[in-house]
């Protein structure tokens, strides 16, 4: 091989040789000596472009499918929830977030997703009130009607635990996490005071038990009330009830006026 060809072999890779004709004489001579190289390099480049294009298409399709699956999961979570709230996790480690998830009751679910996906799911399920809270980095907690109080308690306990590393006198000014927004079905936005009160909200079973207990107390309270009615009035009610069987009787027959009043 001539000196010029050797020089071309050494210079080509350093100059980023791609198989195209070059203005440099030694490269032109190299290409002329090996005419198949130019076509080979061009074919490789075209094939590489096609592969990259195909790879991007597949990646975009997979990304779109993942997004659709995420929206479906969020829609289902909205359907099964009575309360949804978002919490900031910018200053929270993965270990701390995992610990928080473990403290939530069985009926609560936590999702970390893009705000745009949550907005889409919220709009589809009629939870648009949560949209103003979809800013920044949020972890979304979905609470079923049976675990609202326990889910809210879990958050406040988690917040207290995060504050333990700060001196007591500075804890009031520290905010390692915060509630970005909370909504109760149907579309009732909750401020922090209302969100705090959810800690005392009874479960569905507890509410049913309370209603049943109140219903059982109604006959007893009614009987006590009747006993407290003055005797004459109680007698009058009984007399009217007994006289109801006589369709021809009038009130004056049941309660005749005193003789003096009749004479007048």
Task: Describe this structure as you would to a colleague.
Strand 4 (179-184) and strand 5 form a beta hairpin. This protein is 59% helix and 9% strand. With 264 residues, it is α+β, with helices and mostly antiparallel strands. A five-stranded antiparallel sheet has the order 2-3-1-4-5. It has eleven helices and five strands, in the order αααβαβαβαββααααα.
For the structure shown, list the relevant keywords.
single chain; alpha+beta; 11 helices; disordered N terminus; disordered C terminus
Produce the secondary structure layout.
Elements: H1 3-14, H2 25-33, H3 35-79, E1 83-88, H4 94-103, E2 108-111, H5 115-125, E3 138-143, H6 148-163, E4 179-184, E5 188-190, H7 192-197, H8 204-227, H9 231-243, H10 251-254, H11 259-263
Antiparallel strand pairs: 1-3, 1-4, 2-3, 4-5
Helix pairs in contact: 1-2, 3-5
